[in-house]
Design a protein that fits this description.
Layout: E1 4-8, H1 14-27, H2 34-46, E2 51-57, E3 60-72, E4 77-87, H3 96-110, E5 116-117, H4 125-133
Helix pairs in contact: 1-2
Length: 150
């Protein structure tokens, strides 16, 4: 049986985390940019701007999730934006995504946050199935808008 462990990312895991992050970006049709990817993660960890959990399977890096703090003015509390969730193809169907989500829920409880929020692509039915099974509720009342500085 495989040993699955969820750890908090630190600079010690940066090289392996960067490889997973690159796979994640490629999944979203972005080009690999190893130096920029590693620098991005390094800044988030050093500046404590996000919380990153890594899944390890028998000492192999299998997946990660990255959460950013946001605040709800209406609820007057912190929320966590579960911005990134990725499990490497070789490690899917082991329950790793569920474990990373559960660890994220623990973070929300430990920090007295009102909850977690996330977005996923309309056609990403595999991820939607995971979110449905782990207690997330789909928002049908609000639209998401973006403005990008070009």
């Amino acid at each position: 049986m495989k040993q699955i462990e969820i750890i908090s990312a630190s600079l010690n895991e940066l090289n392996e985390l960067s490889k997973l992050y690159q796979q994640y970006r490629i999944f979203y049709k972005k080009e690999a940019e190893p130096e920029k990817e590693q620098e991005f993660l390094k800044e988030r960890i050093e500046n404590k701007e996000s919380v990153i959990f890594i899944a390890k399977v028998d000492d192999e890096y299998a997946g990660f999730t990255q959460l950013y703090p946001v605040f709800s003015s209406v609820r007057m509390k912190r929320m966590w934006l579960l911005n990134d969730l990725y499990v490497s193809q070789n490690f899917r169907k082991l329950g790793i995504a569920n474990m990373l989500i559960e660890k994220s829920k623990e973070l929300a409880k430990e920090t007295n946050a009102t909850g977690l929020m996330l977005q996923t692509a309309v056609d990403n039915t595999q991820a939607q199935s995971v979110y449905d099974k782990t207690g997330f509720e789909r928002d049908n009342d609000f639209y998401t808008y973006y403005w990008f500085n070009k």
